[in-house]
Amino acid sequence: VMFSVPYFAGPLLDVAKRYGIKVNFKTNLRAVNGDEKMAVFDVQQDDGSVKQVEKKFDMIHVSPPQSAPDVIKRSPLANDAGWVDVDQNSMQHKRYANVFALGDAGSTPNSKTAAAVRKQAPVVVTNALATLRRDHGSGAYDGYASCPLTTAYGKVMLAEFCYGGKVTPTFPLDPKVERRSMWWLKTKFLPYLYWNHMLKGKMFDILHKEWRST
Fold first, then answer.
1. Dihedral angle at the C-alpha atoms of 48, 52, 56, 57, nearest 10 degrees?
2. SS3 51
3. Alpha helix locations (H) across the chain?
4. How many CA atoms lie within 13 A of 144 on its CB side?
5. What are the angstrom distances between the C-alpha of 9 and each of 1, 14, 23, 158, 174?
6. Counting beta carbons within 10 angstroms of the beta carbon of residue 8, is it exposed (0 to 12), middle (13 to 18) or buried (19 or more)?
7. Cβ contact 117:144 at 8 Å
8. Rounded mean pLDDT of the chain?
9. Minimal CA–CA distance to 2: which of 109, 149, 116?
10. Do the beta carbons of residue 182 and residue 164 sit within 8 Å?
11. How far is 209 from 107, CA to CA, in rounded Å?
12. What is the chain's Cα-based Rg?
């Protein structure tokens, strides 16, 4: 995902080069044979055709394609891709005005992260309450998401961005620089924020708004 945000692509490629990692683009995992330790990939060629390539592995870590649950994909709420069909700003369903959605099952074209949900939740609350009052909600989600990218033990690059890959840093620091301070943010502060504020429905956005506005 992060390579789709040009601002972070270069620094991340530098990190991969530092570790001697070969990055393969336009390559999708098709199948895994665990007994033989063989992975099969669909590799897009320069002419647009797709070639199947087998590669041996000693260890493989797989991130499967994201998908909404079957109960959503098979319901009238889903769009053609299987996600809850919501307006990307209001989070309101495009066909059923009394339905709102947020999080991993929504059709918003952004990263599915806890940071995204934290910004979507107030929008849904504001607009759902307005709908109950038969009013037009003023809440608008801008696609904000955050991905703390661990580049080494003790170092993190904090990537924050909204729709269109626009970089939206919270802190007055260059976000493409690996920092130990961001490591502490990821390992100490964000878990505290998640367990003690997000899951309890508490707002924790004052500093975020102040920093973002400077």
1. 60
2. strand
3. 6-18, 70-73, 114-132, 180-184, 190-193, 206-212
4. 19
5. 10, 9, 12, 13, 14
6. buried
7. no
8. 91
9. 149
10. no
11. 25
12. 20
Rounded CA separation 210/205 (Å)? 9
pLDDT digits (tens, 9 = 90+) for 116-153: 999 999 999 999 999 999 998 899 999 999 999 999 99
Q: What is the pLDDT of residues 183-193, one digit of tens each?
A: 999 999 999 98
The span from the CA of 91 to the CA of 140, in Å, is: 8
Q: Is 157 helix (H, G, I), strand (E, B) or coil?
A: strand
Q: What is the pTM of this model?
A: 0.84
- With H, G, I as helix, E, B as strand and everything else as coil, classify residue 179: strand
- Scan for tokens 């997000």, then name that residue: 198
Q: What is the pLDDT of residues 61-96, one digit of tens each?
A: 998 888 899 999 999 999 999 999 999 999 999 999
Which helix or strand (DSSP H or E) is residue 153 part of?
none
**What pLDDT, on a 0 to 100 scale, did the predictor assign at position 6?**
86
